[in-house]
Amino acid sequence: MKLVTKKQMREIENIALQKYLIPEAILMEYAGKALSEKCLKLNKERVIILAGAGNNGGDGLVAARHLINANILVDVFIFKSPTSSISRKNLDILQRMGANINQACNTKLLVSCLDKAEIVIDAIFGTGFTGKLEGIYERVVKLINESDKFIIAADIPSGVDADTGVVDNLSVKADCTLSFGYGKIGLFLNEGSQKAGKVEIVDISLPKDIDADTVVKTYLLESSLVKETLPKRSELGHKYDFGHVLAIGGNHSMQGAISLTAKAALKSGAGLVTLTSAKAALNSSKFVDEIMTLGLEDNNLGFLSNLSYEGIKNILSKASVIAIGPGMGKENETKEFLRKIIKNCTKPLVVDADGLSLLGKVLREDPKFLDDHSSPIIMTPHIGELSKLTGLSIDKILINKVDVLKKYAKLWNSILVLKGPSTLISTPESDTYILNNSNSGMATAGSGDVLTGFISGFLAQNSSPLKATLLGVYLHSIAGLLAKEELTEFSMIASDIISYLPQALKQLLDY
Fold it and tell me: 69, 208, 211, 480: least surrounded by Cβ within 10 Å?
């Protein structure tokens, strides 16, 4: 599914008019008809429509006409006179039909109608909304949110920013959002992903491939897209055909993180996995039997350093993929170790956790450090780590996630994965993918280390860096949802995500 900004949607609608001679009135008719059809499918008898002054309100007015013609009882509440000629015309039509049209400022009447209604259509503000809901808009939205009615949002819930998903103070909390023509990015980011309910993209008669005339490079990460990214496995293959992941990390007090990464890489299909850490750290740890280990010299300090590099430099070229960072610690000596690994590695790198914190320090010392790096790099920060990497505040990233990720993926010539309730992936070419599968059970120590292992494991099996990343992120999410379903979000831990990977793969493959 392609996702658009409000500017891109305006461009597409303008192309529809200028190139294909499709007026706004036709688009509005299709949008309103879709809203009415959704109501009819719910098999309810009474609907309230809240119509703003713009074209979003016009969509609601069209819906009212179709519902009245289907013998549904409809109460329309308008906030002010329509500002567009098409919306005014649709209001005139309703008045000539004798429709029940009321002023939204009459909240006493609205409350009375809410008691009798079963569905509310939110057609107050569309994608052009910015700022916050105030005055009568705030009062009305609070009333419908506090009701127990089924709320359908027209295009986007009022109060949600269509580009960022940010809600300033209040928004409609919909059960379902019908997004017209294309998905809007804000429906899948920040609070928007929690306010939209189930999102359905509905046809409004835009010509096929109309977006070829504009630049739409943001996509919703769905199973149909991910299924094509699975690596092919020959029945005649042996372990060396399926790649070797070198997992580097851990220190004397933190071996669990890199252990989870190594186990996840193995479980995702890598033929061999070697866990590499400081000798003093390995001596006190026990790992999965199938994972090989390599202890590096550390002068009994328990963390990786310049000295450790001598023991690994000849092995780097023998691995298929390097996963580095989980549990490494943030010592200056470890930073120099990481610097040498990245500078001299010719194989794909997946950098996570402490590796990202150390890389951030390297980039502050030498902003052009990654300029000449030729092998693929995948970075998997959460928002705090991305803040340290970029020097931007968390608040600034939150309201500009897509733009920030695109900028730094291009700057560092790397694939960036911003982990969170909605996970974003951006490439150096500015293709961006959004996965919206929020799951509080995955907000647990080690879940990010597991993701690093999944991506590394798929990358080792001759997947492209982007395909391995899309597949790893998607299956990590599905495995987490399966674990939550069985164990609840309270009781699942990171290793459960690894345990549910086989079921997630079966689900993707339709086994």
Answer: 208
Quote the DSSP letter at residue 466.
Answer: H
Mean per-residue pLDDT, 277-303:
83
What pLDDT is attached to residue 128?
A: 86
260, 495 Cβ separation under 8 angstroms:
yes
Residues 6+ apart with CB under 8 A from 438: 193, 194, 421, 422
**Same domain, yes or no: 382 and 244:** yes
- Phi (first) and psi of residue 473, to 5 degrees: -65, -45
CA neighbor of 422 nearest in space, from 161, 223, 189: 189
Task: Give the pLDDT confidence of 220-235 residue by residue, as tens digits.
Answer: 999 999 998 888 888 9
Give me 317's structure tokens: 């070229």
Dmax (CA) for the chain in angstroms is: 88
pLDDT attached to residue 277? 94
| Burial 82-108, CB ≥16 within 10 A → b, else e | bebebbeebbeebeeeebebeebbebe
CA terminus-to-terminus distance, the chain: 24
As a whole-number percent, the residues of the chain with pLDDT over 90 amount to 87
* Distance from C-alpha of 177 to C-alpha of 398, rounded to nearest angstrom: 23
Q: With helix as H, strand as E and coil as C, how does 250-269 read?
A: CECCECHHHHHHHHHHHHCC
Q: Domain check: are 270 and 391 in the same one?
A: yes
- Tell me: do 301 and 243 sit in the same domain: yes
Sheet hosting strand 272-278, strand order edge to edge: 183-184, 2-4, 218-220, 432-436, 422-426, 415-418, 377-379, 349-351, 321-324, 244-248, 272-278, 292-296
Q: Computed over its alpha carbons, how large is the radius of gyration of the chain? A: 26
Residues with Cβ within 8 Å of 483's Cβ and at least 6 positions away in sequence, in order, are 441, 492, 496, 497, 499, 500
Q: For the segment 316-339, what is each residue's pLDDT rounded down to a tens digit?
A: 989 999 999 999 999 999 999 999
- CATH number for the domain harbouring residue 161: 3.40.50.10260
**Planar angle of CA 158, 159, 162, nearest 5 degrees:** 85
For the chain, the average pLDDT equals: 94
Domain extent, residue 430, equals: 239-509
* Residue (of 18, 38, 15, 44) closest to 155 by Cα position: 38
Between 210 and 246, where is the model more confident?
Answer: 246
CA of 499: how far to CAs of 215, 223, 314, in Å? Answer: 40, 20, 33
**Residue 94 CA: distances (Å) to CA of 60, 64, 289, 292, 438:** 11, 8, 73, 74, 41
